[in-house]
From TrEMBL:
<dbReference type="GO" id="GO:0016020">
    <property type="term" value="C:membrane"/>
</dbReference>
<feature type="transmembrane region" description="Helical">
    <location>
        <begin position="40"/>
        <end position="61"/>
    </location>
</feature>
<keyword id="KW-0472">Membrane</keyword>
<keyword id="KW-1133">Transmembrane helix</keyword>
<feature type="domain" description="Cation efflux protein transmembrane">
    <location>
        <begin position="1"/>
        <end position="55"/>
    </location>
</feature>
<dbReference type="InterPro" id="IPR058533">
    <property type="entry name" value="Cation_efflux_TM"/>
</dbReference>
<dbReference type="InterPro" id="IPR027469">
    <property type="entry name" value="Cation_efflux_TMD_sf"/>
</dbReference>
<dbReference type="Pfam" id="PF01545">
    <property type="entry name" value="Cation_efflux"/>
</dbReference>
<protein>
    <recommendedName>
        <fullName>Cation efflux protein transmembrane domain-containing protein</fullName>
    </recommendedName>
</protein>
<keyword id="KW-0812">Transmembrane</keyword>
Length: 91
């Protein structure tokens, strides 16, 4: 879970940096930019929870479902980023 969360955080931060200058151009790009910020915040939360679980051994919820959700968000974020970067998808 920790490795996937860190990969997701790196992808989200990269997306934020790429979209940073262009988020003022259109409302759609701005919404993607803020979505990436929200995903990065979620990834940070998952990293913190994973570190707590690893250090204490206490598992409060089922971590596999969180991992699957994070993986799905990473794939969607990457597809949106590639679509915007190479004009594959038009928003």
């Amino acid at each position: 879970m920790l490795i996937v969360a860190i990969i997701g955080l790196v992808v989200n931060i990269t997306s934020i940096l790429i979209l940073q200058g262009s988020h003022k151009i259109s409302l759609n790009v701005r919404s993607v930019f803020y979505h990436m910020i929200a995903d990065a915040a979620a990834s940070i939360g998952i990293v913190i929870v994973a570190l707590i679980i690893m250090s204490s051994g206490i598992v409060i919820s089922h971590s596999r479902s969180l991992q699957i959700q994070l993986e799905q968000r990473m794939v969607l974020s990457l597809l949106m980023l590639l679509g915007l970067r190479y004009n594959i998808m038009h928003f």
